[in-house]
Amino acid sequence: MRVLTSMKGDTGGQIMLAVLAVVTLLVPVLNLVVPEGSAWHISTYTVTLLGKYLTYALLAVAVDLVWGYLGILSLGHGAFFALGGYAMGMYLMRQIGDRGVYGDPVLPDFMVFLDWKELPWFWHGFDMFWFAALMVLLVPGILAFVFGWLAFRSRVTGVYLSIITQALTYALLLAFFRNEMGFGGNNGLTDFKDILGFDLQSDATRIGLFLASALALALGYVACRWIVTSRLGRVAVAIRDAEARTRFIGYRVDRVKVAIWTFSAMLAGVAGALYVPQVGIINPGEFSPLNSIELVVWVAVGGRATLYGAVVGAIVVNYGKTYFTGAFPEAWLFALGGLFVLVTLFLPQGIAGLFKKLRRRKAEPSASDRSGGSDPGPNGEATAERAGA
Amino acid sequence: MSSSTHDNGGLLRRDRTFDFSNQQRAWLQFRESMRRDRTFDFLVNVKDLELDVSHGPILYIEDLNVSFDGFKAIDNLNFYVDAGELRCVIGANGAGKTTMMDIITGKTKPDSGSAFFGQKIDLLRLSEPEIAEIGVGRKFQKPTVFERHSVFENLELAMSGDKRVFPTLFARLTGTQRDRIDEVLGIIGLTEHTGRDAGALSHGQKQWLEIGMLLMQDPHLLLVDEPVAGMTHQEMDRTAELLLSLQGKHSVVVVEHDMDFVRSIAKRVTVLHQGSVLAEGSMDEVQNDPRVVEVYLGE
């Protein structure tokens, strides 16, 4: 019940979910039923691309939950995404079995290549899907819990926290580059064959993964929405706006932060786990600090503290990225940087803010009394300030 | 101490027990039983944390001394507040007003002396959050409300209750809680603004909201630091009404510089000077006291 009421008043979210539902229903039909020659046909490549965008969108929602509502600017969420991805990648590696280049029934190719004789202890269990699925949640979750417990208890906030999250993902990047770590070094994990017995190359499996991503996004969105509309969500915003005051009226700020932060990391892990089978590879590049910064840009472009804005931002920016890197490969980073500057200066509340403004103008053309407090002016400045930090 | 209105009309809930969890209770009990100066006191139950105001005063401060690096901020201070009383404290800068508040709320520990809340609760042995929990609320000078939350939500967040993570996640407003919020909205005069963002309120309204947030925690004793600083005359009058409406149900200690304001609300005024009480009585008595005239009001 409360899940339903939590969607009330979230017009943007309702529209987003409706569009998502329509796309989710149409894409399989257009891909599988409509013949390939038709103008309406959607290629499997596009399906996979869309599926990838959806996992990015889920990741962006996870970031918006901690950045928009809790005021924690994480520059390391890519790490949780990659860890979820690695957990899934390990399962997919074990699924290859003796079909690898070296034909070893147990050891993945890179271990045979490194002349390892037996499976490292942390690879055990990953031949079972349920275990891998559990690890997708637990590995990012436990790392986030320990990291958060240490950081928030010591009251590390603001820029300092952002910097150590960035350091966290960078440290993991360096660690995963090492062959001795046992995660395939800089090549990462790839050459996946099938998932749960379904061939990863088949159209039907691709559609299945796309549907799973859409479902995960919808559920993740509703879960986050449920959290932010609960009293805990209001406490989170209170922490964002006046942390000391929240502590003073009796809330354990550190525990609230750890709880939401950990949940967000697990969500990012799920996104990563759905991403890997669709792109077919996971390597340490996913830990790169640049990735984590990029995804903060998605959220900023979409509009902070709206959740649906994060979805829109992730999809718009990534579509732009796909287009730009195809058309003008060298220009992409400049375009991304320029976009961030433009959004910060002129669109501090992102696309969602623009959408809200238009709606308000339409709804009450002479609104001046009621919207006194939630005027875009002061809010906008505050957002810009934070985004700038 | 000079006697004054001992009868507070039975408005104070003397039978109230505090919402200590079993764990806290056990810890307090343990700590109590380890005190060397009270060998057999562990036989006494922690139920003593019930507020006992049967003799009148809710706050007893006796022979208190605090010094900071040799400077005597509080010098042999004796100060009593009756249950349900509205007391104003005035004094020049450095007279020890804020230090006294700090001691009552557990922020500062004194060098010697005693501070009791009711007859049985020794404030000096409780921590800051514990003191807040047994019903001593403090409003700081600068109002800090949650600007992006509505007035209603501000009060909801401040409400006393289980504030751990999961209970908060699943918390829903009960009818009585809603009524309580509505009641406080009425007391602080913000009923019409209930849905408004707190950030959109005027300075005065924010101060009242902050007092409302204190009231949501159901305090017995309210310490209010300079409530009318920066207010217009109209807002001051409204604040005076608000504070006057609290007396009886709550005991209120107001620290204020504005003499007109103090005159408009105070039955009893305490003048602090160099860390001890210089004079105490009605505003007229105090104002005509030659010592007060000399050190504070005069010249």
In DSSP terms (H or I, runs of 4 or more residues), the helix count of chain B works out at 11
In total, the number of strands of chain B is: 10
Q: Which sheet architecture does the biggest sheet of chain A show? A: 2 strands, antiparallel
In DSSP terms (H or I, runs of 4 or more residues), the helix count of chain A works out at 16
Measured by DSSP, the beta-strand proportion of chain B falls in 15-25%
Distance N to C terminus of chain B: 30 Å
Strand content of chain A: under 5%
- Tell me the span between the first and last alpha carbons of chain A: 39 Å
Shape of chain B: globular
Count of discrete structural domains of chain A = 1
CATH architecture of the domain at 85-108 and 135-297 in chain B, please? 3-Layer(aba) Sandwich
Order of strands across the widest beta sheet of chain A?
A: 1-4
Which secondary-structure class do the elements of chain A indicate? mainly alpha
Secondary-structure blueprint of this entry?
The complex is a heterodimer of chains A (389) and B (299).
Chain A: H1 2-6, H2 11-33, H3 44-68, H4 77-96, H5 109-113, H6 129-153, H7 158-177, E1 189-190, E2 194-195, E3 198-199, H8 203-229, H9 231-241, H10 243-248, H11 253-279, E4 281-282, H12 289-302, H13 308-327, H14 332-346, H15 350-363, H16 376-388
Antiparallel strand pairs in A: 1-4, 2-3
Helix pairs in contact in A: 2-8, 3-8, 3-11, 3-12, 3-13, 4-6, 4-11, 6-11, 8-9, 8-11, 12-13, 12-14, 12-15, 13-15
Chain B: H1 22-33, E1 57-68, E2 71-82, E3 86-90, H2 97-104, E4 112-117, E5 121-122, H3 128-133, E6 136-139, H4 151-158, H5 165-170, H6 175-187, H7 203-216, E7 221-225, H8 233-246, E8 251-255, H9 259-265, E9 268-273, E10 276-281, H10 283-288, H11 290-297
Parallel strand pairs in B: 3-8, 3-9, 6-7, 7-8
Antiparallel strand pairs in B: 1-2, 1-4, 4-5, 9-10
Helix pairs in contact in B: 4-7, 6-7
